[in-house]
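Entry:
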Amino acid sequence: MRYRKRIKIAKGIGINVSKTGLSLTAGVRGASMNFGKKGAYLNTGIPGTGLYNRQRIGSSPSSSKSYASAPRRTSSVMPSSIGIGIESNGNVVIMDENNMVITDQFMLSKIKSTEAYKNQLALMMNQHKELIEKETREFVDIYKLSEYVQPLEQYQERLNNLKPEKFKKTPLNDVEPQMHSIRSDLEAEAKEKVKTLLFWKAKKLRENYVEEKVVSRYDAAHSKWKEKKEKHEKAQSEEEEKMNEQYRQEYELIKEIITKAIDGNKDYIQNGIESWLASVELPVEFDVQYEFVEDTCNLMLDMELPVIEDIPSEKAFQSAKGDVKRKAKTQKEIKFDYICCVLGLSVFFSSYFFNISPVMSDILVSGYTKRRNNNTGDIQEDYIYSVKFKRSGFEVVDFNRINLIDFWHGFENRILTTQNNDMKTIIPFE
């Protein structure tokens, strides 16, 4: 399975037409992405300040070129707005409103002396560092995605407290007509409609107007309200019957699922494993073969692990001046990241499988990877670890707070690592 990064597109999508071709821009003010033949760019900024950041995402056919190869600004007139660009190597360039690189040293000095520039640059450097470090964290922190493993007691408690939801009727919002309200409305109406030159008779005429109409007006309003109320109550009763049946079915389904989980139903467990494997997404490629032993309620996993070449080979380096650049990791660092990745996968998978059923007591995970034989040069499959996880060691563990290496070695295992973090071939548990 492959991890696919998804980008949520907000309001505002446009196709840009220029002499160099077509490009697509998507996003909102202050945060957008641009896709064109020169590559993909992330544009961020603080609306109203004139400061923004334009940063290349990934590589492009012209990745060897950068902002330094962009058109140079020759005008000495201060631009109406400026943009701060951070190249993949961490170098900073400043551009005008037309994305032309500013080279005038006097102008650059003036721009760099502003607090707005300094604050925005510091913010963008932190974002640049976070982006670089995230590339590695996605691999080494997989174990932090592990699921909270519930003990049997919590399954039983949930089953005992399970009740079908009940539909709650909503009352009619319209207020029942009142005689005094009808009379008040008619009195206001009479002042508008009853006119006479004999002003001493106006009051009496208006009183007669109200008395002649108040009963019939009230009866009509009340009859209309009552009819509406009856329709509303009928609709609510029909909705109540429909929804309560739906809630009952949902209750029976959840009850059946929890019961099967507690009983350790083999079909339920296998379906649960298959369903989860089909839906899980990770930033690495993997393949899992499994066997559930019903008699002992044990699960055995054989995992094809990612290759070490998948691990990012660069890290973030921040100088004393605050500049953030990419720096090559040492081989030892890459190998340690790989250890964290593959051990984290075993913990991640086991946490979800333990949670399928509380009767699953032990999970044996053996991991192998494809790598080249130093003697023959052939690609071969080498087992590099095998571990026996017990459910009791996983229950109610906060995986965001554990030390992965210490946690993993708390279980019976087979693994051979050198001081240089090489993972030697092992013979897995049967």
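The helical segments are 105-112, 115-140, 152-161, 179-193, 199-263, 266-279, 331-354, 404-408.
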